[in-house]
């Protein structure tokens, strides 16, 4: 079996989905703590990202695209390996934000049912979920630090 961008895309999505389901359905389960809340799953995605972006810059499409203009970004993402790296970047960072939201919600005593919509929106729309969580957390101040 050849390793292709399509194959790795089909592999990365379920891995991320497992993490999100655990965060939403079983946030206090020991497996969720070990696999997701520890950061292990996003770090696995981070390793994949580094390998993918490295393969792009070492590959035949290395000189295509860049980050200086929208046209350069569009040219960069015409390469399927770079496009996959961008997708894994989203998966990794969105899950990292979901993990931060979950940890912060636990510290503030935010009911999990209020957190769930923010997690779902963070998974689906990244910044929209972060914005929703920022609004929710305004009503739950951080606990005072013990002196």
From TrEMBL:
Provide the alphabetized UniProt keywords. Membrane, Transmembrane, Transmembrane helix
**Which segments cross the bilayer?**
6-26, 35-60, 80-100, 112-136
- Asked whether the UniProt record includes Membrane among its keywords, one would answer yes
Q: Which InterPro entries match?
A: ABA4-like (IPR025461)
Please report the name of this protein according to its UniProt entry: ABA4-like family protein
What species is this protein from?
A: Hymenobacter volaticus
